[in-house]
């Protein structure tokens, strides 16, 4: 009897071990079915600086081809009109005003770990890493200068890039914020060539590492942010542009396009393109020398030119090609979209302000992803609300609260605020309700004073033109 009892126990243990082995195998199979994800972010790129939005002077054949393979968002917004806050919103899937990240970090002195996106905020990288993804941040960071806030503390296994907001393209170090690091260690300058190419090379290296787990790459090119640096290779591709500053800017955009083409070829060569999601967007509207047409305004403004960006998604295994999605969506939607694509329960992340786009672009859901969207700069110095076709803009540039009907006036030429006090009152109330859930900026930047100076310069030029006629 004792022998039978031992045999029974042994059999149970063997069966349990087999069951456990099957579970591990099942987990690997599940991970293998999850899509790889590459999130490509450019810096200060204009709406019309890509062919898929109608641009004609900058060669962007790779981006245009990829856009045609998926969905172009013709009303794709970011959550802030300039750099660091926009990135904070993108990476957390939350309005950055929720945690006081309304401003770029101060550049004078050393910022401590209280300045930047706090570790208490969960990033896309952390959510995906928890669920079997290997994660990489490449390029410009700019959401926390202090080492405690660097990517390796925010869910990224691997980091290659610089912490600050801008850097020369040759990799020449100028202080801690303008130095290229790989996982916390300075990269020797002789190993760097042209940062746009270096960032592309690093992404390709990460893609081709032998690993059973799917990957998430946050590839944040600093191009085409200033300074205007380009190599002869890319300047050759833009020699037809006769305006010098635009020529160099265009070469910087072309370098990104060539890099994205190389990444796409790598996916094809490794047989993983079909089940890889690629998203492309800019962090905000274009800077000087960019082309934001036909939108009004530029980086820093809450006119469409400051917050509407070139934006597409591809996923060959799931998404039909040649789609244009016209309803307003937000960069905040990428976090929940990636979670759902990775077969994860979005409802577990109750802090998110975005919504998954998959029901709208895969299942053709007819309702709007958002009934209302909000923007806030410097604690409300400027703000905007879009609800349906109406957009309210409390503009410090124009020293007035403006109202536009974007269905009839998508270029924001005609302010209709004086004729529609009830709509103004409704949208201001909506803003106050939303803003009640936000906190004051944790620090300030010079944006407010720069806005006033810029508008003064504009008015001065206009007045001179009148006097000289």
Shape: globular
Structural class by helix and strand composition:
alpha/beta
First-last Cα distance:
113 Å
Chain-averaged pLDDT: 93
Number of strands: 16
Describe this structure in words.
- The protein is α/β, with parallel strands linked by helices and 469 residues long.
- Helix content is 33%, strand content 16%.
- It contains 12 helices and 16 strands.
- A 10-stranded mixed β-sheet has the order 7-6-5-4-8-1-9-10-2-11.
- Helix 5 packs parallel to helix 7.
- The longest helix has 32 residues, at 2-33.
- The chain is globular and about 65 Å long.
- The termini are far apart.
- Residues 8-30 have low confidence and may be disordered.
Topology:
Layout: H1 2-33, E1 36-42, H2 61-68, E2 71-73, E3 76-77, H3 83-92, H4 124-129, E4 134-140, E5 158-162, E6 181-182, E7 185-186, H5 195-207, E8 215-220, H6 232-237, H7 244-269, E9 276-282, H8 304-307, E10 311-314, E11 323-325, E12 329-330, H9 334-341, H10 358-361, E13 372-377, E14 382-387, E15 390-395, E16 400-405, H11 421-435, H12 447-467
Parallel strand pairs: 1-8, 1-9, 2-11, 3-12, 4-5, 4-8
Antiparallel strand pairs: 2-10, 5-6, 6-7, 9-10, 13-14, 14-15, 15-16
Helix pairs in contact: 5-7
């Amino acid at each position: 009897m004792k022998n039978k009892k031992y045999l029974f126990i042994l059999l149970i243990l063997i069966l349990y071990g087999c069951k456990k082995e099957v579970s591990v195998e099942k987990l690997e199979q599940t991970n293998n079915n999850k899509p790889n994800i590459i999130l490509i972010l450019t810096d200060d790129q204009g709406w019309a600086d890509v062919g898929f939005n109608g641009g004609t002077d900058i060669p962007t054949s790779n981006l245009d081809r990829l856009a045609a393979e998926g969905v172009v968002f013709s009303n794709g917004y970011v959550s802030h009109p300039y750099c660091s806050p926009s990135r904070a919103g993108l990476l957390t899937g939350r309005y950055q005003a929720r945690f006081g990240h309304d401003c770029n970090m101060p550049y004078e002195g050393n910022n401590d770990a209280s300045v930047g996106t706090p570790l208490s905020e969960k990033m896309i990288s952390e959510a995906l890493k928890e669920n079997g993804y290997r994660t990489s941040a490449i390029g410009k960071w700019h959401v926390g200068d202090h080492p405690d806030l660097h990517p390796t503390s925010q869910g990224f296994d691997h980091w290659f890039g610089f912490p600050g907001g801008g850097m020369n393209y040759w990799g020449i170090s100028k202080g801690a914020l303008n130095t290229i690091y790989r996982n916390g260690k300075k990269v020797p300058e002789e190993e760097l060539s042209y940062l746009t190419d270096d960032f592309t090379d690093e992404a390709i290296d990460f893609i081709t590492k032998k690993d059973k787990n799917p990957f998430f790459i946050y590839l944040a090119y600093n191009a085409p942010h200033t300074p205007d640096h380009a190599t002869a290779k890319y300047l050759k591709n833009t020699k037809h542009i006769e305006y010098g500053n635009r020529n160099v800017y265009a070469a910087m955009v072309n370098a990104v396009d060539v890099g994205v083409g190389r990444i796409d070829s790598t996916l094809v060569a490794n047989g993983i393109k079909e089940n890889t999601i690629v998203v492309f967007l800019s962090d905000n509207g274009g800077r000087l020398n960019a082309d934001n047409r036909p939108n009004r305004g530029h980086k820093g403004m809450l006119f469409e030119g400051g917050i509407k960006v070139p934006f597409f998604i591809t996923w060959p295994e799931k998404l039909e090609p040649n789609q244009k999605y016209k309803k307003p969506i937000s960069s905040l939607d990428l976090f929940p979209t990636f979670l759902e694509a990775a077969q994860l329960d979005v409802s577990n992340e109750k802090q998110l302000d975005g919504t998954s786009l998959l029901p709208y672009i895969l299942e053709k859901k007819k309702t709007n992803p958002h009934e209302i969207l909000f923007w806030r700069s410097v604690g409300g110095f400027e703000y905007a609300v879009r609800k349906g076709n109406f957009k309210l803009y409390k503009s410090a540039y124009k020293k007035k609260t403006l109202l536009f009907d974007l269905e009839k006036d998508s270029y924001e030429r005609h302010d209709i605020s004086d004729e529609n006090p009830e709509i103004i009152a409704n949208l201001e109330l909506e803003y106050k309700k939303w803003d009640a859930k936000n906190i004051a900026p944790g620090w300030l930047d010079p944006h407010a004073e720069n806005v006033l100076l810029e508008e003064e310069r504009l008015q001065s030029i206009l007045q001179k033109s009148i006097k000289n006629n």
